[in-house]
Amino acid sequence: MINKHARKIAAEIVSNKRVGTYHHMVFEVGDLAAFVRPGNFVAVSVGGEASSMILRRAFAVHRASAKTHIGGILELVVAPHGGGSKWLTSLPNGFKVDMVGPLGTSFGIPTENVRALLVGGGYGSAPLFGLAEVLKNRGSRVDMVLGASSAAKIYAPIEGKRSVNSMTITTDDGSAGLHGRVSEFLPEIIEKNNIEVIYSCGPMGMLAAISEIAALMQIPHQCAVEESMACGIGVCMTCVIPMKDADGVIKMQRSCIEGPVVSSERVIWNSNGKIPAGTWGEL
Ligand SMILES: Cc1cc2nc3c(=O)[nH]c(=O)nc-3n(C[C@H](O)[C@H](O)[C@H](O)COP(=O)(O)OP(=O)(O)OC[C@H]3O[C@@H](n4cnc5c(N)ncnc54)[C@H](O)[C@@H]3O)c2cc1C
Ligand code: FES
After folding, report:
1. Judging by DSSP bridges, how do beta strands 22-28 and 71-78 pair with one another?
2. Which residue in 279, 240, 269, 245 sits closest to 257, CA to CA?
């Protein structure tokens, strides 16, 4: 089912700042902010009224605050990539963006204190800072690992670093932090900090690698999957990926409705865009 709090609003841009290769954008969203949970996303209409870009673009919510001096706000971290994201990041303050949200599932927050490891790849770090704040406020220890291809693609705001107990940066080219892929350093970090739960967000390849480590080390792992989403509200089926249902049956399921946050053991990783053998309804 679609997130029951979802609705369509005109979200006014109150700030749009370039941070490295990303844009940190703040929107005035009124009381919608109160319903946003870490892991939720919004679907934004791009290009303006006469645009040929008819599909909405999905963006993970970086943070949402219900009570600020201007009311409810929502923050996004956007990488200018193709037509839609370049248009969005070029907009001035005061512009009203057509936004649908909050959408999708959110990260499950344990009722007891846990030692949590948050792992983000590229702009996948965006939703993790809001999650870190919620976990810290509950008294949990939070360690974070952020990886990207190069230093410019690490999104790690200064104030975000304050909301975690430790921050490890990795880059594929060694231009910042540890030289290598995020997953190479995880087993050591997990052991050193006695990690009890892993949360992750980033490219599917990275999520697959973390899922393998989590399964081997028997640590629960929730990840926010990122499959192309053309509608974000469960209508178009663009976003289906093979996932096990509650009875263990593999089905092609919509990641905008079942996810984006799912328990990693449900996902059939490395299916390479194909329908795995044994999938329900397979012809
Ligand atoms: C859950 C989720 C969270 C995301 N969070 C972020 C984030 O925090 N920051 C960020 O920068 N980006 C995020 N993205 C990526 C973002 O949605 C866009 O894909 C990205 O900004 C590129 O869009 P574009 O218009 O610039 O590029 P373009 O290449 O012009 O367009 C890409 C878009 O085209 C559509 N599309 C592409 N292929 C197909 C297809 N085969 N069928 C139907 N539609 C198609 C999709 O709507 C897709 O989003 C997220 C994506 C998802 C699914
Ligand atoms: S994006 Fe359309 S069904 Fe999921």
Report:
1. antiparallel
2. 240
Residues 6+ apart with CB under 8 A from 85: 46, 57, 78, 79
Q: Are 27 and 11 in contact (CB under 8 A)?
A: yes
pTM of the entire predicted model: 0.94
At 161, list the tokens. 């670093």
Please give the average pLDDT of every successive group of 10 residues along the chain, which has 283 residues.
Answer: 92 96 96 97 94 94 94 96 96 98 96 94 92 93 94 81 90 94 95 97 95 96 94 95 94 96 94 84 75
Evaluate the CA torsion angle 183, 19, 58, 52 in order and state its sign: negative
Alpha helices in the chain (DSSP H): 83-89, 126-137, 158-161, 182-192, 204-216
Task: List domains and CATH numbers for the chain.
Answer: 7-103 (2.40.30.10), 115-224 (3.40.50.80), 233-283 (no CATH)
Closest approach atom of ligand 1 to CA 239: 53
Interval between CA 113 and ligand 2 midpoint (Å): 35
Check residue 248 and report its DSSP letter.
Answer: S
* Measured torsion, CA atoms of residues 204, 205, 210, 212, in degrees rounded to the nearest 10: 110
Between the CA of 230 and the centroid of ligand 2 the distance, in Å, is 6
236 CA from centroid of ligand 2 (Å): 5
